[in-house]
Specification:
This protein is α+β, with helices and mostly antiparallel strands and 158 residues long. The protein contains five helices and six strands, in the order αβαββαβββαα. It is globular, with a radius of gyration of 18 Å.
């Protein structure tokens, strides 16, 4: 799954480059096709976004939870610049991408301070974050539908 996401991201990025080149009057860029390998799929990074956090969750609490999966390189709970209150999300960086993948697979929606945390790969490429690719907006859901229910429903589609 991580390998498919990486391949899709690469294809989208190349398509964007082709569109930019065409708009600038340049020649189209060749799109390389994914190559099958015998290696296990590798995540594109070792950085995870952890959201829906209780305001009192600290770096130390997250370290205690995530370090059980594998060695953590760093953790940052994002805070308001003035009040220093938590913004409800954090970034957890692992030394090993496979540890990050294991944390994503085993800890997504695990409760921290009474709230299920939502874990995703951190997308550091600003052009990919702003592209809108892969985002689906759903509204008017019943109150009983939460992030985990949506995840379970849509994960079958990739």
């Amino acid at each position: 799954q991580a390998q498919q996401q990486a391949q899709q991201a690469q294809q989208v990025q190349l398509q964007l480059q082709q569109q930019q080149a065409a708009a600038a009057g340049g020649p189209p860029t060749a799109v390389p096709q994914p190559v099958a390998t015998s290696q296990a799929p590798q995540p594109v990074s070792s950085s995870l976004y952890v959201g829906d956090l209780h305001p009192e969750v600290t770096e130390a609490m997250l370290f205690e939870k995530f370090n059980n999966v594998g060695p953590v390189a760093s953790i940052r709970v994002c805070r308001d610049a003035i009040t220093r209150r938590s913004l409800g999300y954090a970034y957890v960086n692992f030394h090993n991408p496979m540890d990050a993948e294991r944390a994503l697979d085993t800890m997504n929606y695990e409760h921290i301070k009474g709230r299920p945390c939502r874990i995703m790969w951190s997308q550091r490429d600003p052009s990919m974050r702003r592209s809108g690719v892969g985002n689906i907006f759903i509204k008017n859901l019943h109150k009983s539908i939460d992030n985990k229910a949506l995840f379970d429903t849509f994960s079958a589609f990739g």
